[in-house]
Amino acid sequence: MNTTTITTTTTTTLYSLLPYITSFVFLLLCLEQILYLIKKRQAPGPLLVFPFLGNAISLVRDPTKFWDTHSSISARSGFSVNYIIGRFILYIRDTNLSHLVFSNVRPDAFMLVGHPFGKKLFGEHNMIYMFGQDHKDLRRRIAPNFTPRALSTYTALQQIIILRHLKQWVHLSSSNPDKPLTLRLLARDLNLETSQTVFVGPYLEEEARARFKEDYNLFNVGTMKLPIDLPGFAFRSARLAVDRLAHTLAECTAKSKSRISENQEPTCLIDFWMQEMLKELSAVKAAGEPAPAHTSDAEIGGYLFDFLFAAQDASTSSLLWAISLLDSHPEVLAKVREEVSRFWSPESDELISAEQIREMRYTQAVAREVIRYRAPATLVPHIAMRDFQLTDSYTIPKGTIVFPSVLDSSFQGFTEPDRFDPDRFGEQRQEDQLFKRNFLAFGAGAHQCVGQRYALNHLVLFIAMFSTLIDFKRHRTDGCDDIVYNPTICPKDGCSVFLSRRCTRYPNLSLE
């Protein structure tokens, strides 16, 4: 049999199989649509979806429009559905339904995942995947990181870093006064240095900080891309970057253990953590018991990355919106400046104390209103571990990715919710208590953010220092304050401003 005959036979065979192959593919496509419609039932959402990809392309191309559409079609029922890369998803707009998800994070209901493809990106042992007693034990060990003493240590570090970056911003703006300065990447760098210094302090050397920044940028980009875990794709680069970041943080943990074992005073978050942990490890060793879970360097390195992920982009979002909202509400800015001046002066060369932060009641209210009005992490993804009865007429199918909308809840219940109004959090109105269920920016239930006081302190300090030290004017263009995802929400133009020094001189701040 010659080559021509073999080729002819193969071609003939393929042609004869083509109708069967076509029919099989068509059957799979029909089955996919049928399964989607069975899960969808009467819920609002698209009637037909693109094979496998679903509406992933529209989500990646314009996340703001995608989620705004879901919010709109969810107005009546409180939720809506869609299909993304082979996964059925459910969007929740109604606050009470969101609480139903937050309060049922357990093995037979929902698992918090932080990202639709979080397990691939963060690894299997991330803190957000924990349940029950295991999760409670870890949070108990984390608690010493956020005591008043620890927070006071962090506020000193935060102010020194904020001041250094604000001076740099003014210098950059003054060097080219006719061109607005875009702050998104600059604010991200400020927060990254703050996180590095507060979390692991002296254990991250300059060269390691530079690598850390590069890896975190890779991670950031990967969170917004399609989850293709192959060489050359951003998602793969992000996953490998997470591994390197966690390894670096594990090395910092080992250095902290060594230093604290010599009875040195804590200077950063990992030191406070290790101070209590070493006491626990010493006690179990004396009792002849094995070391408890969640105490190895590798585990703690992973949990430190969880802190970084939770703090970094959310805080960047809040700083940018604070600047934009203060610019568009000069009466609020004037009140902030007046209040801060009663407690702190740049000429004093003193750090703002923890007590002074607490006394800045109006500035605290402004920070809370910034977070309510523009909740940084608008969605909190969970996976349904079992079929779950959401309403009398709808059951969430097992495996569904569920997206409670924190942003939508922020515009429910509150008086005139579409208005930026810090007075709602004042002593007279106390809407933070009246509508507590609607303020979900820090989550709810067992996985509520353990570092929310740290995050609020950071925002209050930034607002106080930025408004006191700097005169600023927003470079306003059409749509500049439209919401975009990066991956937390930011102004569309990256918050472009003109800056100049306001104070007579900058303060000389130090830890001495």
| Straight-line N-to-C gap | 91 Å
Q: Quote the CATH topology of the domain at 23-116 and 383-424.
A: Uridine Diphospho-n-acetylenolpyruvylglucosamine Reductase, domain 2
How much helical structure, as a percent, in the residues?
40-55%
Largest sheet: 5 strands, mixed
Question: How much strand?
Answer: 5-15%
Structural class: alpha+beta
Mean pLDDT: 90
CATH architecture of the domain at 23-116 and 383-424: 2-Layer Sandwich
Total number of helices: 18
Number of strands: 12
CATH class categorisation of the domain at 23-116 and 383-424:
Alpha Beta
Radius of gyration from the alpha-carbon trace, in angstroms: 26 Å
Low-confidence stretches: none
Name the helix and strand elements from N-terminus to C-terminus, one letter apiece.
HHHEEHEHHHEHHHHHHHHEEEEHHHEEEE
Strand order in space, largest sheet = 1-2-8-5-3
**What is the overall silhouette?**
globular
GO molecular function, one term: C-22 sterol desaturase (NADPH) activity
Transmembrane segments: 17-38
GO biological process, one term: sterol metabolic process
Membrane topology: Single-pass membrane protein
